[in-house]
Amino acid sequence: MPHGKLPTITTPTGGSVEIVTSVSQPGFNPLDLIYASVAACMALSARIAATKLELREKLTDVRVEVKGDKAHEGPSRIERFDITFHFDGDLTADEKHRLAEMAEEICTVSNTLRGDPKFDLKVS
Q1: DSSP structure class, residue 2
Q2: Which Pfam families does this UniProt record tie to the protein (predicted)?
């Protein structure tokens, strides 16, 4: 990789993103991408939950903020995710909690992070 060129990842669906190598650079670093993946999955899952709970007509928008704490010991990893849902619409506090809880149950990304996925490494 030439000096100064950022690494680029490409997804199976054709998306691509340059990865920044410093937290002071604008753009996405690997931790940003994990947080963004959790947030996107939770937001989409909340919409699915709203449909299942027959609340879709009451929900006008959902935004999700994700932050995390890195572990201080052991292998480098995120030890804790802090997830905040922002629901717009004519929803009660109980309905918002039910949506958030169901979204967490549905979300493939959070379910994967909680599990013990196997990694099959290849070199080409």
Answers
A1: -
A2: OsmC
Q: What is the pTM of this model?
A: 0.88
pLDDT band at 4 (very low <50, low <70, confident <90, very high): low
Residue 23 lies in a domain: no
Residue 40: domain span: 29-114
Residue 38 is predicted with a pLDDT of 98
Is 27 within 8 Å of 21 (Cβ atoms)? no
Please tell me the distance from the alpha carbon of residue 90 to that of residue 9, in angstroms, as a whole number: 40
For residue 122, tell me if it sits in a domain.
Answer: no
Q: How far is CA 54 from CA 46, 58, 101, in A?
A: 12, 9, 15
* Cα distance between residue 37 and residue 5, in whole Å: 24
Helix or strand (DSSP H, E) at 82: strand 78-89
